[in-house]
Amino acid sequence: MLNALPLILEGDPSARMVAGSKEFLLRETRNTIGRRPDLWKRDFSSIDTYYKSIAPNRDRFRRYIGASDRRASRTFLEYVPSTNPSAKISETENYTVYSVRWLSFGEVYGEGLLLQPKMKPLARIVAIPDADQTPEMLVGLSSGIPTKSQFARRLAESGCQVLVPSLVDRQDNWSGSDTLESRFYIRRTNLPHREWIYRQAYEMGRHIIGYEVQQVLAAVDCLEELAAGDSRIGVAGYGEGGLIAFYSAALDSRIASTLVSGYFGSRQRVWEEPIYRDVWGLLHEFGDAEIASMVAPRSLVIEYSSVPKVAVPPKPIDGRSGNAAPGRLWTPSLETVNAEIIRAKSFFAMQGIVRPDITLIAGENAETIEFGSEKALRAFLDGLGVIKEMSALGTSPEDQRTYFNSDDRQKRQVKQLEAHTQKLVRLSEHVRTDFFWNKLKTNSPAQWATDINPFKEYFWEEVLGRFPKADLPLNARARKIYDEPKWSGYEVVLDVWKDVFVWGYLLVPKDIKLGEKRPVVVCQHGLEGVPADTVEGESSAGYKYYKSFAARLAEEGFVTFAPHNPYRGGDRFRELQRIANPLKKSLFSIIVGQHDRILDWLSELPFVDRTRIGFYGLSYGGKTAMRVPAVLDRYALSICSADFNEWIKKNATVDSGYSYLFTIEYEMPEFNLGHTFNYAEMAGLIAPRPFMVERGHHDGVGPDEWVAYEFAKVRQIYAYLRIPDRTTIEFFNGPHTINGVGTFEFLHKHLNLPKR
User: Which DSSP letter does residue 326 get?
Assistant: First the structure.
């Protein structure tokens, strides 16, 4: 009946699915290097033509790192006095130090120190410390950096004008809300400030990296204004500052020389790094070699120094929730760094007049050197055309401020970026209207089904990420595991890609007549669930959530299939999202491929009507109900249970305890979803097929008001299309669970199976 081979399973299929998916993604990661050349069309005939030829790559890079806000038109530095009457905070025989800020974008300021030489500046430099270093440390106004590594001070001593910005650090002092109370909990987290901003910004197509690149480029705007064309501009950075300097130079050809210390190397394991380095699509198109090629032919100095030693994430203290993502920093081998430089140079071999100018500074015997070495600074200044020798260090500067505390500045930075992102969240509905609704004018269901196809493609390619269709034979294997009075149950495995498979339970009513074709309901479990949870009875742990809905539907005459989705295993499955995102993919890239294969197989079964296959999922299965049927048209309808929400707010708001910012689900943000598809728009991709929401009043995923507000837009779509009977919502007096009343009626009606 199933046309399947005997199934022999060893071990835990759920764990095997996660492990196999990881192997698949790691293999895809390795393959990115060989595929990237197809995305580049470099023209080396002149510098101008070269820059034009890589402009599309730069534009995509700018978008991926979230450097998308319009920079301020104001291009001047503001002197910032504190309790002193002057912004001057220190003075030596060679330079004066001022406290400054500059408007970068929106109402976000860069803030830091300006070192003004007492001679005409030989060059203008943005010197960027690591995230956990303050500008004062890099200048020598406070302890924390050895004198010989205080490269901002060294450059000022040598006659350069130096602007030292402060970066968002890795502490967690302001990651949360001191005032928001939800269900009697104060919402504080152990998210490093960089992760706190990353999580909310990622959903909005922004990123802590892009924000800080914009601050640096706004600083370049200010220095360019001061220079009035009489000197060249460079950027230099260490650790996280090295990353920001590197990315800034890749985007802006005004930067003539760049020093990157404690960062450059292979990014093929970026998924192991702290989550605030997770960049959508990065490895799909860019490794550090490709980014270096966007700096060329300008000077790029790579200093091989040890990366910062940091604890990631901070240990939760003072009652903070421990929901930060795991990650680590490590110093790559010199061989790895060299290999990436060689790869960068290989793009230019014998290819016209454009040549890379990359210098590697390392210690003897392949050892790291202290960052900010004189040798590296000399090479950096050479790239700026400064031929003066590095000056010896003069008198150490002393901070004249009485009550200065760098924590106050850090708080301002975090809160400004938070406020900017939250404004994007609030305004995102209007952006989505322009992106989606205003472009769909038809009220014909048939025409709507055609007109939404470009949006489906965009959603699949740019939001979920799309893998090619399954490339292995189905190779269906099955074994009987249930023999109930009204139905039989089979455990089934299907192949998708190498190491990726489908595993699930098929329940077949026993009263199907020869030649009869029944509708199917695909019954999807939620977070940390397994197929059995949707089948087993009241004695099972999963019953309180699933109410045996796959088995109950089989008793009502539906064929049901309960597949396993690979969101089980805590950090083990969340790691899949981390590996996938740099590939311009997500966990749902795999899940969609698995469901496409499920539909292939179900459609071949002799007792299945391929035109009547519906989807019904709870919780994470409800997330699946919004995403998978949105792109797979072979699902005839979809029911979202215990998940439907004002999803953008759910992911990105700081104003509600319902927000995922306060939970362990760090895999939830989807890049730029906020400006493209909330749940109403996803339902618009499902329309004109039937769509239903099942919602318990006491479900903690969000308040009724959020759910009702978002569903009102869905109801409006179907009313506009003159098919209001194809959508509904059932509120019931219950928690996070299957209710199975209105939804069952919906399935009987729209899958055309009369009740028995």
Answer: P
d(CA 529, CA 542): 8
Q: Identify the pLDDT of residue 316.
A: 84
Instruction: State the pTM of this model.
Output: 0.97
Q: Alpha carbon 113 to chain centroid distance?
A: 31
End-to-end C-alpha distance for the chain, whole angstroms: 24
User: How much of the chain is helix, strand and coil, in % rounded to 5?
Assistant: 40, 20, 40
Domain residue ranges in the chain? 40-424, 436-750
Asked whether the beta carbons of 611 and 299 are under 8 A apart, the reply is no
CA nearest to 693, candidates 749, 743, 646:
743
Same fold: 40-424 with 436-750: yes
Q: Evaluate whether 168 touches 417 at the Cβ level (below 8 Å).
A: yes
The CATH class of 436-750 is: alpha beta
Phi then psi for residue 650, to 5 deg, are -55, -35
User: What is the rounded distance in angstroms from the CA atom of residue 642 to the CA atom of residue 619?
Assistant: 5
CATH 3.40.50.1820 fits 40-424, yes or no: yes
pLDDT at 619 over 60: yes
For 183: left if phi > 0, alpha if psi spans -120 to 50, otherwise beta; the answer is: left
DSSP string of 359-379, one letter each residue? EEE--GGG----TT-HHHHHH
Q: What are phi and psi of 710, to 5 degrees?
A: -70, -35
pLDDT in tens, 461-491: 999 999 999 999 999 999 999 999 999 999 9
Instruction: Determine which helix (DSSP H) or strand (DSSP E) holds 505, and give its type and residue range.
Output: strand 500-509
List pLDDT tens digits, range 484-528.
999 999 999 999 999 999 999 999 999 999 999 999 999 999 999
Count CB-CB contacts under 10 A for residue 676.
22
Q: What is the pLDDT of residue 183?
A: 47
Q: Quick one: what percent of the chain has pLDDT higher than 90? A: 89
Other C-beta atoms within 10 Å of 438: how many? 9
Whole-number Å distance between alpha carbons of 625 and 288: 37
Average pLDDT score over residue span 210-215: 98
Query: Which tens digits make up the pLDDT trace of 96-125?
Result: 999 999 999 999 999 999 999 999 999 999
- How wide is the angle at C-alpha 164 spanned by C-alphas 161 and 167, nearest 5°? 160
- Quickly list DSSP for 417-481: HHHHHHHHHHHHHHHHHHHTGGG-----HHHHHHHTHHHHHHIIIIII--PPPP-S----EEEEE
pLDDT of residue 185: 54
Phi, psi at residue 236, to the nearest 5°? Answer: -140, 140
Integer-rounded Cα Rg, in Å, for the chain is: 29
